[in-house]
Every structure is written in structure tokens, then in C-alpha cells.
Amino acid sequence: MGSTRDPMEERLLGGGETEDLKWRIWKEVKLMWKIAFPSMLARVTSFGVLVVTQSFLGHVSELDLAAFALVQTLLLRFINGIIRVYSRDAPM
């Protein structure tokens, strides 16, 4: 009897490939890191910029540090709110 799977399912399951599981996983991980690494790098660098800016403002004056912390907190919450609203409406 023939296979009852459609061609898309065969391709996803790797029915015709002779590669072992280790190499298929390695290829998939490499593809995943092409997307994940820039995202992680952007998060780490943006956090680093905030920490460095806040530390320099702390040396200038307490008022400047308090103003920066307040504005940064409000802006960050506002931006995260916008991102959540638009990511919820995005098609999957």
C-alpha cells in the first residue's frame, strides 16, 4: 500500500532524506540563531545604554538622575504598551 501522507507532511517529517537527526537539528538551530541573535543583541545593548546613561547622570546631579529615571520609566511603559497592542493584532 502507498503512503497516505501528503507531500507537505513528507517534506516536514523528512521521509525522503537520509540525513541523521543530529544534522537536521543542527541545521534548524543555525536557522533559529539567525533570528534570535539579533533580537538578543538589541535587547542587551539597549539595556546597556540605559545603565550607562543613568550612571553618568547620577554623577551630574540627583535631580537629573531622578528626571531621567522618571521619563525613562514612563516612555518604556508607553512603548511596551504599544508593542503589546500591535503584536496582539498581528496575524499569526
Task: Give an overview in words.
This protein is mainly alpha-helical and 92 residues long. It has helices spanning 7-13, 21-60, 62-89. The protein contains 3 helices and no strands. The relative contact order is 0.05.
Quick gist of this model?
Helix content is 82%, strand content 0%. The chain is mainly alpha-helical.
Classify the beta-strand content into a percent band: under 5%
Uncertain ranges: none
Q: For the terminal residues, how far apart are their CA atoms? A: 37 Å
Oligomeric state, counting identical vs distinct chains: single chain
Percent in helix: over 70%
**Order of SSEs:** HHH
Radius of gyration, CA atoms, in whole angstroms: 24 Å
Main beta sheet, described?
none
SS class: mainly alpha
Mean pLDDT, all residues: 80
What is the global morphology? elongated
Number of separate domains: 1
Count of strand segments: 0
Q: What's the helix count? A: 3
Structural topology:
Blueprint: H1 7-13, H2 21-60, H3 62-89
Helix pairs in contact: 2-3
Organism: Trema orientale
Keywords: Membrane, Transmembrane, Transmembrane helix
Protein name: Multi antimicrobial extrusion protein
Keywords:
single chain; 92 residues; mainly alpha; 3 helices; 82% helix; 0% strand; elongated
